[in-house]
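Design request, tokens follow.
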């Protein structure tokens, strides 16, 4: 974790890694580890670039960091960039739509868990996630359109919610949920 120190960023990265692996089990069973890596690294540059002033640098900076570390993988770089359409890369592949959707869903499920008295993901039911999904003022920063883009992979929003609850639930202790 040379490039990422913030605990919230780290746990978010683990959550998205878990969801990506869960999606890969259904969509790309031979690439579960690879999809996990895309999830783990998608926000690598979060503390390394000034995305608050220019969202266009979030994504490309991660690719630059990885290049500097000797990694040359265009599929990985394109997937990382496509999770932030504001950097100018539009999702086109199944992997790219998966990361676009998994990223906000991880934060959204966490936000739903936090309204429960015990703040545990184990308390969260699928239908509660869906109910909150339709309340646009709840966790307004979690982009509904990006989450719904999971449908371009052939999976449904319901599937994505199931995967997120199951996979984040499996590492709830790591996530502090
Ligand atoms: Fe993210």
């Amino acid at each position: 974790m040379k490039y990422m120190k913030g605990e919230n960023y780290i746990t978010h990265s683990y959550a998205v890694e878990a969801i990506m692996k869960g999606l890969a089990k259904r969509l790309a069973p031979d690439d579960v580890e690879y999809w996990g890596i895309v999830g783990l690294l998608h926000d690598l540059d979060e503390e390394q670039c000034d995305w608050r002033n220019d969202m266009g640098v979030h994504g490309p900076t991660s690719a630059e960091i990885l290049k500097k570390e000797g990694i040359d993988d265009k599929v990985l770089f394109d997937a990382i960039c496509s999770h932030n359409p504001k950097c100018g890369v539009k999702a086109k592949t199944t992997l790219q739509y998966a990361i676009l959707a998994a990223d906000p869903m991880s934060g959204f499920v966490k936000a739903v868990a936090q309204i429960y008295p015990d703040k545990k993901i184990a308390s969260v039911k699928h239908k509660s996630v869906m109910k909150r999904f339709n309340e646009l003022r709840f966790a307004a920063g979690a982009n509904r359109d990006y989450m719904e883009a999971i449908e371009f992979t052939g999976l449904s929003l319901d599937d994505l919610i199931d995967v997120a609850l199951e996979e984040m639930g499996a590492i709830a202790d790591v996530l502090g949920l």
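Comment from the thread starter after seeing the answer: thanks! The chain has one domain: 7-175.
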